[in-house]
Design brief:
79% helix; mainly alpha; globular; Na+/H+ antiporter like fold; 415 residues
Amino acid sequence: MPELKLLFLQMAVVLAAAKLLGAACRLIRQPEVVGEMAAGILLGPSLLGHVAPGVMNGIFPASGMGPLYALSQVGLVLFMFVVGLEVRPGELRKSARAVVVASQASIVAPFICGVVVALGVYGRLGSGAPRLPFALFLGAAMGITAFPVLARILADSGLMHTRVGQIALSCAAVDDVSAWCLLAVITVIARPHTSGGASGGALPLRFLGLGAYVAAMLFVVRPILRRVLPPSERPGPGRFAAVMILLLVSVWTTEALAVHALFGAFLAGVVMPGGGLLEAGLRERIESITVAMLLPLFFAYNGLRTSVTLLDSAELWALCGLVVVVAIGSKLLVSAVTIRASGMSWRESLAVGVLVNTRGLVELVILNVGLDLHILSPTLFSMMVIMALATTVMTSPLLDWIYPERLRSQAAVLS
């Protein structure tokens, strides 16, 4: 089958590029995911399509992207399940007041700034979507923190069990939960306009269905899972299959409710019993294939939708710079000031701000949702991808400068 042969070629090219650039990033103390994100962009029209359009169109023809897209979406569903699995609702409730305030500030400030920017650029960069979902979506996209990438940066830098690391991780968890709940609401609002589906009058029913589903997952499914899936036991083939069925049902349900499938995957991960051998076993089974193979396919698909060449004027590059500056200032500085008000030193506060400013892969996931729903134009999508890459690349160098190794070694280790 020609389609299958083409898919295997695409996968080989994508994985080779991702691993090569990932290894190169490790040499310069950058997370491997940065190289994989860059590989996806370089394989698209931003570089390969610019210097060798025949090669790009031969490997990634527009008519042959269906299988690659399907596999990338499977990878995203599994990835969002793992992200949800890492969220600890009980731990979030125990978080110190300073963490709760800082996390909400690091969501609210970027959201407001994103809405203001969206209203300002709507006439120039709008995609034809109504102004309200456009503004709300850009605000939500500005507030995201890449929880999984942040966790890896903390582990690599030795900050995981320090006060700075724990506060940053708690803030990121609250940020992601808040942002995905907000995204679910925005999707319900946007889909009737972008898909030609239900009328605006159906919105109350959509919200009612979404609320009922979330409540059922949290207060019915979650207690049942605690009884049938003991956290102290590794999942065998039968239990793993049952978890995957639950995941797929959750994904289908949120799609049926006009909420994006990825929210269903995230919620399925949140309600799973956390900690212990169960979580470790699920993570090992899923990440072994998702991180190694499926997510690089998503990066490639994302890169094929990103074209830096769309920014073909000084005005567009200035707007891109504005997006990057607003994203960094509203997230990094507001988080740092809020944490500083709780009594931490300026260096520690700025370190937390730098960490929660990491956008990474989760940002790309949300941006692709916006492009799929025709909320973002291709030009604004490319600007936001540049912002996601910039805020991820800057994390490690800034952290080394603001919070050097000598201070990390002196940090009190949390029990």
